[in-house]
Design a protein that fits this description.
single chain, about 250 residues, alpha/beta, two-stranded parallel sheet
Length: about 250
């Protein structure tokens, strides 16, 4: 909701795709946009949402892949809860993969654009309290980094937004713990402002951290040492095989 409000205030025409019909409709009405009921775990529904946005507005320039849930106490392997495992993977990871696949053709037709996928600091630093959340957000970061080069051929940029703990319904059950620990929480508007910064930045394949009191910035990954051949560094592999850290 905060991202939609901020984009609309900047003159962007917004299509809201959400499972929550009442909430999504309210946000779309507030920003003068379009609401499309969408379950991000269903590829066909994301395709439908993109088609509806293009039909209404004539083009697509920016995609916010923001759906996410935590698995909380169900994140452990003892006992293993397959139903919750499938749920968090479907929303947090499949939703991003399906989202990129759905928006890419429309972005290409418009000569390029920007995709921002909401990951988390848990995608950069493990969060033992929720291993499956950590797994899915780490996968989103890896996907974004790997897709940057092939998507550049279409003038499409893709980046990950990695906020710390934010005062949203996702952490509502634990908010009192943060208050007692005097731990600062991000406001949703802070994350929305960071989203706009990332969406406008010319870079691609980056994972931007967002923390209270700090300016959002790309996280600097340490490169992995490459192989040695007769004591000298081996040449880089072809881009279709290797990655930026090899």
């Amino acid at each position: 909701a905060a991202i939609c409000r901020r984009l609309a205030a900047a003159g962007v025409r917004v299509a809201v795709a959400d499972l929550d019909v009442d909430g999504g409709t309210a946000v779309a009405d507030e920003v003068g946009g379009l609401f499309v009921p969408t379950d991000v775990t269903e590829r066909a529904q994301l395709d439908r949402a993109v088609a509806a946005a293009v039909e209404r507005f004539g083009r697509l320039d920016l995609a916010a892949l923001n759906a996410g849930v935590s698995s909380a106490a169900r994140s452990g392997l003892d006992p293993f809860d397959e139903r919750w495992y499938r749920r968090i993977v479907g929303i947090n990871l499949d939703g991003v993969v399906f989202g990129v696949a759905a928006v890419l053709p429309a972005l290409r037709r418009c000569g390029g654009g920007s995709i921002v996928a909401t990951a988390s600091l848990a995608g950069l630093v493990p969060m033992p309290a929720d291993a499956f959340y950590t797994m899915t957000k780490t996968a989103v970061v890896g996907l974004v980094r790997a897709l940057a080069e092939p998507l550049a051929a279409y003038q499409v940029r893709i980046n990950a937004l990695c906020p710390g703990f934010a005062d949203t319904p996702l952490v509502a059950g634990a908010k009192e713990l943060f208050v007692r620990a005097n731990f600062p929480l991000l406001d949703a508007d802070d994350v929305a402002a960071a989203f706009q910064t990332v969406a406008d930045d010319p870079g691609s394949g980056q994972a931007w951290f967002v923390q209270p009191g700090r300016e959002p910035a790309p996280y600097r990954f340490h490169g992995v040492p490459g192989p040695l051949v007769d004591g000298a560094s081996a040449p880089r592999p072809p881009s279709r095989i290797g990655g930026p850290d090899t």
